[in-house]
Every structure is written in C-alpha cells, then in structure tokens.
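Consider the following assembly input.
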Amino acid sequence: MSGRADQWVADQLWAEDLAMALVDAARKVGAAACDATVGLSASLQASARDGAVEDVTRSQSRSAALRVIVDGKLGLATSSDAPTTAADIEELARTAVGIAALSSSSPHNVVLPGAQMTANEVREAGEALRTWDDDTALLDPAWPVERALLTERVVRGHEGVSGVRDVSAGVRRGLFALATSTGFLGSMRGTTAQLSCSAVVEDGSKKQIESWWSQARAMKGVQDAVVVADLAARRALARRGARRVPSQSMPVIFDPNMTRAFFGGVLAVVSGEAVARKQSWLADAVGAKVMPAGLVLVDDPLLRGGFGSRVFDGEGQAAEKRVIVDDGGRLTGFLLDGRSAARLGLPNTGQAARGSTSLPHPAPTNTTLMGGSGDLAAIVGDTANGLLVTKLLGRGADATTGDLSRGAAGFFVKDGAIAFPVEDLTIAGNAREMLLALDRVGADVDERSSLRVPSVRFAALSVGGT
Amino acid sequence: MLLDPGLLSRLVGRALGRGGAFAEIYVQRRKSAGFAFDDGELRDAQASCDFGVGIRVIKGAAVTYAWSDDTSDAALLACADAAARIDGGDEPVVIARPLAPRQRPSHADPQRAPGDIPLERRATLVRRADAAARAAIAAFGATLVQVACSYADVDEEVLIVNSEGLVLSDRRALCRLGVEVVVDDGGQRRTGTGGGGSRIGLDHFDARSQSPEAHAEEAARMAVAQIGARATPRGDSVVVLGPASSGVLLHEAVGHGLEADFIRKKTSLFTARIGQKVASELCSVVDDGTLPGKRGSLNVDDEGTPTERTLLIERGVLKAYLSDRHNADLLGMERTGNGRRQSFRHPPLPRMTNTFLLPGHDDPGDILKGVKVGLYCRAFGGGQVDIANGSFVFEVREGYLIEDGKLTAPVKGATLVGNGPETLARITRVGHDAELDPGVYTCGKDGQSVPVGVGLPTVRIDGITIGGTG
C-alpha cells in the first residue's frame, strides 16, 4: 500500500471514530437512541474559455450531524466544520437534544438495529463495489486542466460553433461514516471524474446552446474529450432553424436524457415518504400493472462501480437488490426507510439515502430499466410521424395527480427519419397513463448516472404548438 | 470579527503570492433552524451551524477559487495557497493595500435576528399555520387531505476582505414560512400554497397580513378555489397575469438574460443590445437590492459592493445589465452590486435581487373587463428559461378562464410557453397595482441558490401559448 492509500484508510478510521464519539456524547446528555454521520470530501474543477484556463475551483469539507430521539421526539443538529474537540462534540449533542424537545413525539421515530457487519467487513465489502479510484482521489489538477483545454479547443474548431457556455472537467473524492446507538459502525467512500462541454451556435437573432457530458468513477473511464466536444457541437448545430409545428396528438420519443428526467419523477413518487405525505400518484398502485409487461425496473445498490452503489443505507441497513416493477409490469412496493415504513405500517426495505448533514429519506440507488431492445435510431426508424424530444423545460409531473405539462424541443420525425428541428412546443399527459403507454423501449441504457434508462416512445401524447 | 485581522492579512498576502491581480477572502458563519410540520406533527426539527472561508484570486479572465470549512490557521493558509495557483508567473506583482474597515449602507438589517429569539417561539409559527389551515378548510366545508407547513431561518455574519484594502462585516437574517394544503375534489387532489418572509427577522410575522394564519388561509383559499378545475384549452390565447407572484415570469424570461456573465460569454440573446428596443413601451424593469427588509435585499452584495436600484429596461429600451465585480471589469461597465453567492462554498455570480416591472396607469379591473376570452394566472409553480433563444415555460398553479371580462372556471394543468422578448413585446396593458411577492422565492443558477424578490403589476399579454391537455 502506498503512503497515499494509507492516508485514505486513515481518513475513514478518523471519520468512524468521530461518529462514535458523537454517539457517545449524545447518550451522555440523554439521547438513548441516536445516530451520527460524518462526511469528508474534496474536489477540484477546471473550466476553459478561448484557449485558456478560466476558473479553477478547489474545495475541502468535513461536516458532521447528530440525529437524536428523546421520548420519541426527533432532532437533528449539523455542523461544518466538523467538531473535533470534546467541548465542541458535547455542544453539538446538546444542540440536538435541545431542538428535539420542540418536535412531536412519534412512535415512527426509531433508530434501527443495523446490519450484522463489523466496520472492517463494511470497508472490505465497499472495496468490492469499486466506487473508488486511487489515482482520481489524488485530485491532480493536470487531468481536469488538460481535459477542459482540449475539449474547448476541439468544440470551437467546429465550423458554425461561435463559442461555449461552459467547458469543465473535475474530480472529486468523498467519504461518509455512520455510527448508531444500536451498535452499527460503517464507512464508505467514492470518487468521480466528469467532463462536460456546451456549444453555442448562432441561429438568426437567437442562439442555440446544447451540451454533452460524461461521468465515471475514475478519470480513465470518462469519455474521450474529442467525443464529448463533437457530440456537443453536433447537437447544437442540429438545432439551427428550429420551428414550431401545429398542435396535435402523436407518438413522442424521449432520448435517454429525457427518459431519465421522466423516470426521476416516477421514482420520486415511489418513495414511501411521498406516499406517507399523500403526495404520490402511485400511492394506490402496489400490485397493479403500471408498465407494459416485459419491462423490469430494478434497484441495485450492489452494482459494481455504480454512482449509487453502497454497502449499507443511511440507517445502517444492509443493502439489497430489489425489483421495483416486475416483468408483469406490476409495482412491487415502495422505496422505504425506517420512518416511512413505520408510518405506512410496512416492513422497511432499507433504502434510506442520507447526506452527511441531512436526515435519512427513502430514495433509489442504482436503478435500471431493463427488457427493451434496439436503440434511438431504431425507434425513430419505426416512427411514421412523431416528435423526438431532446430538451424539456419546466417541472415534471404533479406529484399528487401525475398531470404533466412541459415545454419541449427536439426534432420532428417523418417516415422513420428526422425531418427538422422544433422548439417552443409543449407536451402534456398524465404520467400514470404515459407509463402504460410506453410502446417502444430501447436497450440503449445510458450509464452516466445512477438512474440508468434507455430511449423510449410513448404511443401518443398531446403536443402543443401553433 | 470572524477571523483575526492578522490572519486575514496573511491570507490576502499568500493568495496574491503567485501572480494574482486581486484577492478576496469571504468568511461566513451561518446559523440556521428549520421546522417541518406535516400530518399534524412537528416532524423535523433541525439546527445547523456552518462556518467556512472562500478565497478567490483573479487575474484577467482567469479566476481560482478555493474554500474550506476546516477553519484552522493551517487549513486556511493551505486554502490561500491553493487559490494562489493562478496561470502565469510565480512572483507576487500586486501588493495588497492595508486593510481599512469600511462603513456600509443599511437596507436589510434585521430588527430582531432569529438567533436572538428562543427556538420554541420560532417553532410556534408552524403550529399556528397548521391549526389555521385546518380551521380554514373546515370553514370552507372542503375535505382536507394534507397540510404541510415549514419554517426556516438563517442568521449569519459575513466578513469580506480584499487586496484593495476592503474590510466589511455584515449581519444578515432571513425567515421564511411556507404552507401547503391539499384538498379532495371527488377523488382528485387540489393543492394550494401560501407563505412569506423577509430579512427583518421574526417581527415580520407580527402584522396580521403576514401572520401564519394569513398565509395558511391563503393556501386554503387557493386549494379550495381549484375544486372543479377544468382541463386547460390548448393554443394561443390572451393572458392576464395577476399582480406580485407573476413576477417570477419576468425574473425567468428577462432577468436571467441580463446577467453580465451571460453577456460576457455572449450566450444571452440580450448580448450587445443596450439602447435597443427589447420590450413593449409599457415595460420598465428594475432590479432593486435596497428595498427595506425584502427577501432579495442586501446592504452590500457578497463582494462588498453596496446594492443599488438598477433601471434595466426603460419604456421598452434596454438600459443596463446586472453585474458582479469580475464581469463588470471585463466588460468595462459599472458594478451594480449584484455579485451574490449561495455560501462560502461558491464563487460570486451576477444575480438578481428584487426584480420587478414598474406600475402602469391601467385599473386592474378594467384590464380584466376588456378581455373577451383568455386565461387569468394568479400563481405560478416552477418555471424555466433557455437564455440563448429566450424560450420559457411556466406551470400555472392557480389559473381561471376569462369569459366576457369575468373570471369563470378554474383550470388545471396549464403551462405557459413562449419567448421572453416576443412576450414582452406583446404586453398591451399594465396595471397600477405593482406589488412584490410575499417573500418566498429562491432562484437557482449554476447550482447556487439565493433568495430573491419578484414583482409585477396586473398585465395583459396579447398572445402567449398555453400548453395543456384540453
């Protein structure tokens, strides 16, 4: 092990020790049930413009939070800079207990027994998930600076590209530790590297801006700078002369970026918290058919190298793969954490997400839509008359009704080919009906984030235009 | 002072140590508290303390920024060294001027800062709002599905020091109460929202019109008013925007495009259009960070520049952009005091403060009476704009059909879609009822959120596209 690698492990042990110390301090001041989180992170990002480095941003952060339950009342106290002296640790504990006294007592406030793993076992299991890359963790400025400069040079070299909005590359490392009063102690860590590029194209009195980005757990996994620049330039150039089309009902194709936005909204209402708050259009849908049969939606925290991968959830529960929508198209259940499970009277599914200074809340980890075939080109090829959406403006579906109405831009599809670019349109529908109306789903799953979805087509949506 | 003056001088010196032309230290200690009341319980009670330093070095168009929430001397000196690594030269060429404490204006000082008031008193606000919302729904005879109330406050000190000798301290407060009410409408859900806040602290909620009860009643009213809402007719229509909250449309459709970073990078369609007509002659648009106590107001921006009242558009003609130090310097224009940041973790960007359309001469009732068929929008949900081509989208949260000059049925699921300058050109009536929103808006840009105010009088627009399912 190199000296640096030793340092990373030392950081993990430091964070674990601090989390334990916070739990001990909270117990001493009267919080029998509590848990503590500690986060350490650092990042470096560089951007380029006109052939020169424009912005370089570096960060280092260490923060901590203490969640306490006193007589069924819950309080959270957070701090950055993380407390390191005994006096500061005690002060955070007293703040947490003090603010808990103001909340309502509820049987739903619980600190759960954690996974039966030692901190060592958790660290080893974390290694196997491959969320960390030693080289990336060094945050060497050479990689982001050189990637940003090269990408910016290539994108400006495209004929018709007048400039860029932002071209940047960055690296980040982070670690998270959790200790609970029920005896769980664990930490995990991760690195990411990303490159993004936007291209500006003049279009009459307007401009068109499009972008492309790549993200990976390690610098070497990031898409080539030339590819990223070319994609950004081609996407922007293709939008020149965009116009409107008459209002009509027609098949609508989403590229994987747009599918991600749509399924992000779907998963938000599969969250047990949304259901408990009665803000979910899927609240009554468990066991019901919500998607065409043959498509499967799976949440897998143990996916190697995934952006949502983890060994334990935000309450110390062992991570497990779960099917959200089965191959019969049925919703199998909600995403739950301790509190939402208790509120709904359901068994916990261990899907608590948690930042180093926030309360746990149910959220997906690595979610993949499987069972499709072909790709975007194949779906376009099979569409006689329709709209390919590559940009959406505004908010997603209303959480309680599922009604969706958004601004859209993209391309008009005629006789199985892209005919011309379009903009200033709206698409409208109801998300629950839209899910059932998926009549084509690709296999071109976009793996750049934790929500991994392909191109899709909705049989018919209401498109608003002239 | 948040940091020792000797240490501050050393940090400035180290930050300029490798060829930087300008260095700035931003120190921030922010205490915040928040309460969430939902389903009859005060569910989440949170208190947080955030203390950190952001160091920025500028040379020409290049900027380096380093921040740390580890505030030990060693960590901060390392942070200054990291920021110092700017392109070009290894030798200091600029010598920092001695630090000289500066007076600042006082538009947005807290009357009683939240931090000086016991947590129990602050938590009472959400309990009162919850009770009032339930009572209001019962009085309407409607079926309540859910009430969710939230309260959050910030009490912070900032210290801004730079290599030009500036030393400036500011104390800032911010309070915000939000209420959301969901009622049943024959199996469908209708949502109403209310809320308000300001920088004056807890006293804000003392007036009856700003009380938790008033905000709860407004949320209940909005939810109940939408019972029986119809699908929105799709297509081009005359639209009347109600006062105050509709200002979010102006903020998105015009305001962002006037921010100087987009101008410098030539990504805004307002680039190089000063002196040109960009809106109807009825439109004059102002950004004003000096309005006493308002949510978007500040004594000084996050670079220490005093905030201003900036006339952006005068009778349809573009007059000015909103600038921070860096972009103003590069563009050779005056600073307008709009350099803002979410926290010490973020470099400043040109941002709006309170942005609004100045009142016109028309009576709001007359504006409505003159519309044969159209849509009246009273409240908006989310909105988004593409500043390159001006396209925008807004979700109408509370809207009504206008038939023969009268509001008839509520509508659901409406979205306004259009183009900023084209829409401004189609404004044909402007009311005399200018108002600022009640103090709830947060604006997002480049991953940074800052509190803002928006405002608009009643306005008639002849032709805007409505998206919907009808």
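The longest strand of chain A covers residues 52-70. Ask yourself how this observation constrains the way the partners meet.
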